[in-house]
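Usage example:
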Amino acid sequence: MAKEVFGYNIDFLKQVKKLLKEANIASLEIEDGENRLIKISKKTHPEYSAAAQTIIPAQPHPHSLQQANAASQALSQAVPVSKESAYSDEAKYHKIKSPVIGTFYESPVPGTPAFVKVGDTVSKDSTVCIVEAMKVMNEIKADVQGKIIEILKANSASVQAQEALFIVEKA
Amino acid sequence: MNQIISLLLNQENYLSGQELARKLNLSRTAVWKQIHKAKEAGWKIESCRKKGYKIISSPKNRIIHEIVEFYFKNKLPFELILLESADSTNEAAKRMLLSNKEGSFLVTAEEQTAGKGRFHRKWESQKGKDLTFSLCLSLDKNISELYSFTMIAALSVYEVIASYLNDQSALLKIKWPNDIYYDGKKFCGILAETFAEDNIIHHIIIGIGININSSPTMETAISLKSILGKEADRNQILSEIMRKLQENLLSYQQGKFEAVYKKWKAAVLWIGKPVKLLVGQEAHYGILTDIQPNGALLISDSGKESVFYSGDLSADFLL
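Running the assembly step on the lines above writes:
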C-alpha cells in the first residue's frame, strides 16, 4: 500500500509538485479544506519583478493603467507595420509564405548554417527553409529570383499558414 | 533470370527445362545459363535429371523482387526499386524525382549509410536485417491533406506488425505524429518530406524504417526478432505492408478516410493522459484531449485548450 497524505497518494503529490516547479510558478499553495497539501515558493528574480511592476502596478492607478494600455496598443500595432507593410509594393518585393501551420527551421540540421541569410541572392528553386508539421518536412522554395532582404521568423518559431517568412527584393 | 524465378516460385513441383524454355520462348541452353546465374546470385535450385528444376531456398538476407511479388500474389501496386546501398532511401527517392522519374514508387535499400530521422538524427539499421524504404507518391493534393498520407503509412505498418504479434499486439502503439513503439521502445520511425508549390503537393516521400531481424544496440529500441525470438521474412512483411498501403490509400481515394483515421486513433498513445509537448525550447503541459483527423494535437491545460501541429510529445516526464 502506497503512503498517503490526507487521502492522496504521496507519489502522486510529489509528481504534481515537480510538474508545478517546472512550470515556473513563483508561488502556489494548494489546500484541501484545512489541510495544506503543497506549497511552492520561488525567489523571484529582482530585475524581472521590477520590470513587471512598471507595466502592471500592484495597485494600479487609473491614470497609469491607461498609459500602460495605450503603450501596449501602440506596441502591438507597431510590430507588424515595421515588418511587413513596408514591402507592400508587389512589383518590387515578394513575400515567401509558409503553406502550412508548423515550425520554422532556418537550416537543414540544427547547428548548421542557415539555408539563406539576409543579402543572399536566390533563384526560383532555392530552398530557403523547412516548415515542419507533424514530422513532415516541407522544403520551402523561393519561387522568385532576387535578394533576401528580411527574415521575419526566428529559428524554431511557430508559423501560421500563409504567414510571410522572408521578404525578397525581386531581381 | 527474373521470369524463371517467378515461374519456379509459383510451381510447387519440378518444372522441366523444356517447359521453361517453351513458356519463356528461350532455348534450353539459355534456360540453363539463367539457372546458373540464379544459383550464383544465391538461389538454391535443385535440378533433377528427369523432372527438371525446383527452388529449395532463396538468397539469404535479401529483399527479392520476385519473392515480394510471390507473396503479393498480384501485380505490385507501386514500382519496387531495390538498392543494395543508399545514403538514405529518402535521399535516393529525391534524386530519382529530380531526374524526372514519374509515377508512385517504393525504394528499399539493404543498407543505409546515412539513415536519418527528424533533423538528421541518426537512424540505425543493420544490413540485410531490417526494412528501410521510402514510398514516393505522385499526387496533386492540397497541402492540407498532407497528414492523411503519413497517417496511412503509420497505420499500414502498424496493422502488419500487429498481425505478427498476436496477443502481444496490445503493446504495439503509434506515437504522435507517426512513430511506432512496442512496450515503450521504438520499433519503427517514419519521416516524410515534401515540396509544396502554391499549396499543392505533387510528391510526398514517406521514409519508413522498421527493426525486423536486427538486435538493436540502443536500449530504447526493439526489433520484431527480439519480441518473437525468431527471424521473420522481410520479403513477406514488405509485401504485406504494400498491400495495406494499397488498401488504406484506396479507402482514402474513395472518401473513406474517416475509417482510416478511426483505426489510427485507436492505436495512438496517451489520448486522455497528461503529456508534455516540447516545441523548440518551449515546454507545454496538459491533458491530450484529442488528435484531430488533420493530425493536430489538442492539449488542455486548466480548462484552456490549445492546438499544436509540431513538437516532441512525451508522457514519461512524471517519472
